[in-house]
Amino acid sequence: MHFFKHPAQKWTANKKAAAASVDAHSQQLIFISDKIWVLAETALEEVESAKVLANFAEEQGFTVERGVAEMPTAFIASYGSGKPVIAILGEFDALPGLSQKAEPSKVPLNAGAPGHGCGHNMFGTGSLGAAIAVKELIEAGKIQGTVRLYGTPAEETLFGKLYFTRGGYFDDVDICIDWHPADEIKSNVQSSKALVDFTVEFYGQAAHASSDPWNGRSALDALEFFTNGLNYQREHMKPTVRIHYQIMNGGAVVNVVPDYARIWTRLRDSKAGDVMKHWERLKQIAAGAAMMANVDYEVKLISGLHEVVPNRTGGAALQANLELLGALEYSKEEIAFAHDIQEATDKPLTGIRGEVNPLKETAEHPSGGSTDVGDVSWVVPEIRLRVTTAAEDTPGHSWAVVACGGMSIGHKGMIYAAKALAMTIVDLFEDEKLRKDIHEEWVERVGDYEYVPIVPEGPPPVPDHVMGIGEN
Ligand SMILES: [Zn+2]
To answer: Is the model's pTM score more than 0.90?
Structure first.
């Protein structure tokens, strides 16, 4: 695999203007991020959060299409016309149960409520800040083409971007770019794990568990046979595979032989093709489990994700802009806040990593997580950024991420990310050769794999009370 190395980027008038635009809007962006942080709405319920972002884009002169890809909380904000078309992804969904104050010890803002444990309040808002900076350059006639912000809901569960790729919303996009809150600054040229999410339901026959258990056929027995089979199977799968499950239903009371049981299983590996192969094996285990317990069963696909197609050419262009921006610096108070977080989460008191990491080699196998950005990267070349918004080693999806994302450590990272994205988009607009080389690398990596989103037929699972909201 070869990639194209372009000469180091320089501060140009357009990049200075892009960074200055982000600075000029920084108070508004921080206000929006904090608002979404407090709203903390979960997958496909992000009604107010989507509205805050889309309304601000509209006020800034973007044309906004709401309720796209059959999701009331999805939107596309667009400015400019013609080629190139550069897209920026923005997420804004929260995680259940992680409500937290912007304080360095575990104190919920609203006990039991959701919280932004993945920092998506900053993700969507920072991306909007970058889109505005680029829009202002187009408006001033400094660059030509189209910039779009894709407001993509439900990254944490249900995977909103699948419905964008299925609907062909990226078909005319030349290059896409995104960022994610993190505990380090880097141009991300690593892949992610592919996965498939599915349920297995078992249907038996209820009976009194003591008077006439011989009349019963237990759905729960089948579920246990299934997990046993699955756990034995682990030994015969490569260490790149991950399988996790939750028992969603195992019966209601102890004196009834359960006639219904349901398990939600997530299977991951480095490539979607391998995931689908392992899934076939797990389906056989489900069939065997049902046979042993003499019950019926049904396997249902929830959805699946593809691994990210990395792009080192685009990653190197982004890296050059990170080096122009340089390290983030922190006040004594911010470092003390980080130390408190680290103490509370049993981590060494190392503070906050503000320096720019060098561009790393792309590993053959990704380390752990998955993202629906992966699916986008199969239909359009994707450039990916990570920026520090939390103390070093902050546990992911935790109260500590929420705490940092609601105060200045998070705000600083978000503003930095908006600048880095905008500056890289300036390069993409100005440098046709860069766009061509990014595309060429992408074509080579995708090869002859025919991408099909792993998603059941029919509309996305939008909750009833959200239907109809946000449509044009
Ligand atoms: Zn996330």
So the answer is: yes
